[in-house]
Design goal:
Strand content: 5-15%
Low-confidence stretches: 389-395
CATH superfamily of the largest domain: P-loop containing nucleotide triphosphate hydrolases
Helix content: 40-55%
Number of helices: 19
CATH class of the largest domain: Alpha Beta
Radius of gyration: 31 Å
Distance between the termini: 59 Å
Strand order of the largest sheet: 2-1-3-4-5
Shape: elongated
Number of domains: 4
Length: about 450
């Protein structure tokens, strides 16, 4: 902790410095009030020991000037013996405490440690207030890590403007929650929020879903139908998994974003739409641009402000508050009374890699709450619910016979195991499983059929 000593007596400065340096305080000194004020505002010490009687700027004048300049350090006034009225006046003006000369080393350290404890208490109070404020302000999104708080603050900042936003991050990190947050904090919050998963809708139906169609434009089009862009008029549309958008629709989406109008399938006239677009993806759009799978013009059009959500394995400090959040949620919805995770169980959770991120964690917490026989969830149950790293993938190469060394055969076995694991982690959500496997949605569908996976 940094302490500034302001006293015109060099002997006093030296003796107090020696006392504090022995206790590992970082000590700065100033010989009068003016020098002390300049040093206090520049170095921002947490504690200031200031003599009352000094030339140029006395202690009370220093205190007034320091508070007027919004100084945040705690000021302890050093007064002459018997100057009680002066000490009380200093505390009325904002001093934290006072020391009466002459004082012993123990007396000085006691006052400083009291001030230090007060400072720590206020820091903790402010941290808790900020945490509560964040959760209220950000629609209940639970975040303690600096990276997630930065992402949420950026979402709050950009929400006030109609700017297009790109939310990136692995599957299960909360991209749709953040997109909804951008909408909820914006002037459009009273209008529709329309999410659409570009990878979950068959390609031949996606254009009609997005832009609508007119009667007779294709088989089954028995009436005119507005698309999701028109339904989101005045509000926000979330284009989730935008990296899965087919090339021909990328061109039409770019035109809609640039011109603010859409054309229904089979129609010759466009319709004006006022829609704020938030795009989201777990894929690397820069690589897709390089390979020609994603149009560079569309990439630059949607990547105006990017909000990146880090994976859960990079922010383990979010795991305990997320667990408390899910415990409260499922105690309420499942009518349970589970108190929490045992310390050993929490360590297991903190050590897990969480490939499915927050979604996987929530799924595990719910299962553990349903299966536990105790009020506290123990480590043994958690270990049983989490897959061992690499489980099911090992092959004993030394014991394989010579006619079983086919790379193709074992690659297929590994691929099948990985696909099954990805589907388990994502509760059968094929879009999210494709993200984890680094496959396109259509490639995953083909492999599920090819391997005859019962999902």
């Amino acid at each position: 902790m940094r302490v500034l000593i302001i006293d015109d007596d060099p002997g006093v400065r030296r003796s107090i410095s020696l006392i504090l340096e022995e206790e590992d305080y970082e000590v700065l000194t100033a010989s009068d009030g003016e020098e002390g004020l300049a040093m206090a505002l520049e170095s921002r010490p947490q504690l200031i020991l200031c003599d009352v009687k000094m030339p140029r700027l006395d202690g009370l004048e220093f205190l007034d000037a320091y508070r007027e300049a919004a100084g945040e350090g705690l000021v302890i006034m050093v007064t002459a013996y018997g100057s009680t009225e002066l000490a009380i006046e200093a505390m009325k003006r904002g001093a934290y405490d006072y020391l009466a000369k002459p004082f012993s080393a123990d007396e000085a350290l006691l006052v400083l440690r009291k001030a230090q404890e007060r400072e720590k208490l206020w820091e903790e109070v402010n941290r808790l207030r900020e945490a509560v404020s964040l959760e209220r302000r950000y629609s209940g999104i639970v975040a303690k890590s600096e990276a997630m708080e930065d992402a949420l603050r950026l979402a709050e900042k950009v929400s006030r403007h109609p700017t297009t936003v790109l939310v990136t991050g692995e599957s299960g990190t909360g991209k749709e929650l953040v997109a909804h947050l951008v909408h909820d904090l914006s002037p459009r919050k009273g209008a529709p929020f329309i999410p659409v998963n570009c990878g979950a809708i068959p390609e031949n139906l996606l254009e009609s879903e997005l832009f609508g169609h007119v009667k007779g434009s294709f088989t089954g089009a028995t009436s005119d139908r507005a698309g999701l862009f028109e339904e989101a008029h005045g509000g926000t549309i979330l284009l989730d998994e935008i990296g899965e958008l087919p090339a021909n629709l990328q061109v039409k989406l770019l035109r809609a974003l640039q011109e603010g109008e859409v054309r229904r399938v089979g129609s010759s006239s466009p319709s004006r739409v006022d829609v704020r677009v938030v795009a989201a993806t777990a894929r690397n759009l820069e690589e897709l641009v390089k390979t020609g799978e994603f149009r560079s013009e569309l990439y630059y059009r949607i990547n105006v402000v990017r909000i990146h959500l880090p994976p859960l394995r990079h922010r383990p400090e979010d795991i305990p508050p997320l667990c408390r959040h899910f415990l409260a949620k499922y105690n309420r919805t499942l009518e349970l009374n589970i108190e929490g995770f045992a310390p050993a169980a929490m360590k297991v959770l903190l050590d897990h890699a969480w490939p499915g991120n927050v979604r996987e964690l929530e799924n595990m917490v719910e299962r553990a709450m349903v299966l536990t026989e105790e009020r506290t969830i123990e480590a043994e149950l958690v270990r049983g619910l989490l897959p061992a790293a690499g489980a099911g993938l090992e092959v004993d190469l030394e014991s394989l016979p010579a006619d079983e060394l086919s790379v193709k055969k074992h690659s297929a076995r590994l691929e099948r195991t990985l696909i099954r694991r990805a589907l388990e982690v994502t509760d059968g959500n094929r879009t999210r499983a494709a993200e984890l496997l680094d496959l396109s949605y259509r490639a995953l569908l083909y492999k599920i059929k090819d391997y005859e996976l019962d999902v």
